[in-house]
Write a structure and sequence with these properties.
The protein is an alpha/beta fold. Helix content is 44%, strand content 13%. The protein is built from 13 helices and 12 strands. It is globular and about 65 Å long. The C terminus is likely disordered.
Length: 400
């Protein structure tokens, strides 16, 4: 049995993606910056991918910067924008406490260089309050260069009121960036409807190859290139493009756009069925996040008395792949910064697992997980209590 419920970390390739990548590697050897026929064939592949990405987010192709990842897109947006605005005296950044490390670490790096950073708190559902943003903007008057708040959180799936937040930023003359890595390909995303100035996405989150991403930049927004050299991407991102990977990104974007609405309802239905069953069958299990406002594929559940890492390993041995949170933070001993920012104790945060579904998730998969999780939780709790009783100290998930 192999069941994959870790789509928020990486989605399996969408139909046609592998074939597109292999086909370009085999048949399109040219450098896309070369003017001969081989180069122009490669350039056409990139142009097609750019159009497909733009169509997916309701944008114009010329405003899409193709990158090597969502992390690179975040870095280009944040570093590029604030450095461009430095001459205007805007040296203040605002973000939220639950951003992906790609944003938090980049803001911290700018802080180390002298920029001021405000990290907005969130409520128990993981939502940023527009009032809190307005207050932060008012405190710094016209000194804020950029606000960066993610569209949906990668660990709990919470959707933010991006359009309202972006409008507030604009009233104070600040630019607005959103990390939409966890929403593009899962829910309808329109850069115009959101009202943002920059939007990051990552190909492997919706069935494209790893190592591909994009940053949409509203016309008129100045960015200082963070990767210099050649004139690729209109001098915003130097370096020979990953033509084969971008071919796969384009195919994945086209597939996501065609299937988005048809897939959302069954995925959400399976997610809800899994969630309800685990809450009903596992005493002490609780859902983390905002049930009414989240992406359709994600649930984050705490299992009291069980260390999540041990439950993850037990499930993996059963052929079930889940996550304790961000794949980029795996291996850390610290509790999730997302869950603790939402007010969960460190102990409860360490008992939380993320189940993220996708188009390939079946009813049989959900039934199998519902069958296995309660038994494994019960087993680990029993082992924990036994360890505490015999050894006189805290065992697996136990308390002193």
């Amino acid at each position: 049995m192999q069941i994959y419920l870790d789509y928020n970390a990486t989605a399996p390739p969408a139909p046609g993606v592998v074939e597109a990548v292999c086909g370009v590697l085999r048949d399109t050897p040219g450098n896309p910056s070369s003017i001969h026929a081989h180069g122009q064939k490669a350039r056409a592949v990139i142009d097609d991918a750019r159009r497909s990405v733009a169509d997916l987010i309701d944008a114009k192709p010329g405003d899409v910067v193709l990158t090597g990842s969502g992390t690179e897109a975040d870095n280009l947006a944040i570093r590029g924008a604030v450095e461009a605005l430095d001459a205007d005296g805007r040296r203040h950044l605002i973000t939220s406490a639950i951003e992906h490390e790609a944003v938090l670490a980049t803001c911290a790096a700018m802080e180390a260089r002298g920029w001021r950073v405000t990290r907005l708190a969130v409520d128990c559902s993981g939502i940023v309050s527009p009032a809190a943003l307005d207050a932060a903007l008012n405190r710094h008057d016209t000194g804020t260069a950029l606000v960066s708040v993610m569209h949906a959180n990668n660990e709990v799936g919470t959707l933010q009121p991006i359009a309202e937040l972006a409008a507030l930023a604009h009233t104070h003359g600040a630019w607005f960036h959103t990390d939409a890595v966890q929403t593009v390909g899962k829910v309808p995303v329109s850069v115009e409807a959101l009202g943002v100035d920059m939007l990051s996405l990552s190909g492997h989150k919706f069935g494209g190859p790893k190592g591909t991403g994009a940053l949409w930049v509203r016309r008129g927004i100045r960015l200082l290139a963070q990767q210099t050299g050649g004139k690729q991407e209109r001098s915003r991102r130097a370096g020979t493009e990953n033509v084969a990977g971008l071919a796969g990104l384009g195919v994945a974007a086209t597939h996501a756009r065609a299937t988005l609405h048809a897939q959302a309802t069954p995925v959400a239905s399976r997610r809800d069925r899994l969630e309800r069953a685990l809450i009903e069958q596992v005493p002490g299990a609780e859902v983390n996040g905002a049930p009414e406002s989240r992406v359709p594929n994600t649930t984050n559940i705490s299992f009291e008395g069980v260390e999540a890492e041990l439950l993850l390993i037990a499930l993996d041995l059963e052929g079930i792949a889940v996550s304790t949170g961000s794949a980029c933070s795996s291996g850390t001993l610290e509790p999730s910064h997302v869950l603790t920012a939402m007010g969960l104790s460190a102990a409860r945060a360490r008992t939380s697992l993320r189940f993220s579904l996708g188009p390939g998730t079946t009813d049989a998969d959900i039934a199998a997980v519902i069958d296995r999780v309660p038994a494994l939780v019960h087993k680990l709790r029993r082992l924990s209590h036994t360890a505490v009783g015999v050894g006189g100290r805290t065992g697996v998930g136990g308390r002193k």
